[in-house]
Amino acid sequence: MKYFNKILKIENLSIDKIAKKFKTPSYCYSYNQLKKNIQNFKKSFRSISPLICFSVKSNANINLIKEIKKFGLGADVVSMGELMIALKAGINPKKIVFSGVGKTPREIEFAIKKKILLINAESKSEVIEIERIAKLKKKSVNIGIRLNPNTDAKTLTQISTGKKDDKFGVNDKIFFEILKYCKNSKNLNLQCLSVHIGSQILNNKPYEKMLQVIEKIINKSNYNFKFIDLGGGMGISYGQETKKLNYQKYCIAIKKFLKNHKSKIIFEPGRSIIGNTGILISKIIYIKKNDKKTFVILDAAMNDLMRPALYGAKHKILASKKRSRKINLTHEFVGPICESTDKFISLNNFHELKEKDFITICDVGAYGMSLSSNYNVRLKPLELLIRGSKVKIIRKRQKYKDLI
Fold this sequence. Notes:
By secondary structure, the protein is α/β, with parallel strands linked by helices. It has twelve helices and 20 strands.
C-alpha cells in the first residue's frame, strides 16, 4: 500500500478504481506481498529445513491457499472443513497437521481416511478416541501430543494459548501418561511433540523459554520424536507497533535446541504469511459531528472485520485520496451495526474526508474474512486478488437470496 501523487494504490491499481468497479466493502489481497512474505519466511529458517504448514484458520480462501501451495507449503487445520479446503486446494496430505482441542469422531475418522501427516491430540480422552477409531479401521495412526508449556507469550489474553490456565494442550504429568499409553498401543504411532503459545508474538523471549521447557520434557521422557511442532504465533506490525519479531534470533535458538535433538521442525504460521497482504476497502456513508468528535460512518462493519470489536485490535486506516488539509479533531471510524463496539479506531489530526470517499483498513489478511459473519443479516464482502494490474475475483459477494 503506497501513495502515488496522493492517490492510494495496492500494487498497480488505485483504491478508488477498484472500489468503483467492484463496490464496497471489499477485501483485496496483494499477490506480491504474499510471495514476499513466504520467501522471507523460508529464507529466514532455511538452515533448519522446517515443514511450513500454513494456518488455514487465519484465512480459508481456497484460491489463496492454492497460491500458497505453489510455494511448497503444507497446512495446519483445526476442523474437517479446513481439512477439506486444504485437500481441495491440492495440498499434499503428508504436509497436513490437524490441531484443535475438540475434534469430533467424524473429523478424526475423516483425517485417518485421508492419511494426513499428523493428528495433534490435546487430551488423553482424544488419544483414546483416536485409538478406538484406528482399531475399527485397522489402521496405525501418526499422532502428536500438544504440550501446554505454561509459557506466557505476553500478548492479548484473548489470544494466549500456552499458559496453564488456557484450554490448550496437556501439562507435563498428563503428557507422560499419554506417552506411556501410546507405547502400549498397536494403533497409535506417537511421532510429534507439539506446542503453540499464542499469537501476535513480537519478542523472541517467550519462544526461547518454550524451547527450554520442551528440552526438559524430551530429556525426561527419553523419547525420540520425529517431529517437533513449534506452532506459529509470529506477529506483524499493525501500524502502531514498530517492533518486529527477529526470525534470525529465533532460528539460532532452534538450531541450538536441534544440536541435541534430531527432529524435523514444523511451523504453523498464519498471520506472518497472510496478515499484511490484505486490505478492506470501505465507503464513507455519512460524516456526523458532535462537540467532541467526528463520526466517520462506513459501509464496512464489525461483521466484516471483527478483530477491533473482539480483541480491541487497532488497524491502520488510510484515505484513498490524501488531501493536503488536516482536521484537528478526533475522527472515530465506525460501522452501521447497532452495537457500540462496532468501531474500528479513533484518530486525531486526520486528512480531510468527505461523504462517499473511499477509505482503506490495512493489514486485514489474517482473521479478517475468516472471522466475518452475517450479523444483522449483512452480506459477506467480495474478495479480490491483485497481481500487478490484474484483478481476480477469488470469492463473490454474497447475495440476499443466498441468505434468505
